[in-house]
Specification:
8 helices; elongated; mainly alpha; two-stranded antiparallel sheet
Length: 185
Amino acid sequence: MKNRWTAWLLHPPTDGPNAIVAIRLMAGAVFLWEGILKFVYENQGIGRFTKLGMPFPAFTASFVGGLEIIGGMLLILGLGTRLISIAFVIEMLVAMLSTKPRLFLGTLPLPPPPAPPVAGIWAVLHEIRSEYAQLMSCVFLLAAGPGAWSLDAWKDSVVTRERSGARRIEAGPSIAKEMTPCRTK
């Protein structure tokens, strides 16, 4: 059972449509720049985590910011897509649960949205759009894998070639081709 989960996490399908790269780029870029913002602007990092009452706000903001920077780059590259998607799904659920119920009740310690609605269900639905988009993008990547245009796909193709016994044979000074040894019965 453990091997099945490990294989599922570390060897996702890479034969999905090339368009998966668009979802990876969208989600990865947003995580990347939001992670950078947590270090550049105190009100987005330590200040925000302090106002929300997060435990150890300096550590938590730095950890989340680092996770978003590194994880965002991994999503963009399509490397470890399922592992980082799990981390980001958890992060988005925590982000939504730590802010949106208080926004609904009108007790959020952060500044209210700049325009109505400022509290209630419509304020929550308006303010949750970014987290929801990130959450659903990561759920999609978790299920679909990184797609063909990813480092995971490239890594799997290299491993497959090595296991099949393919080798490069020089056919001339500038011509190289792949050959797989013939198998006899």
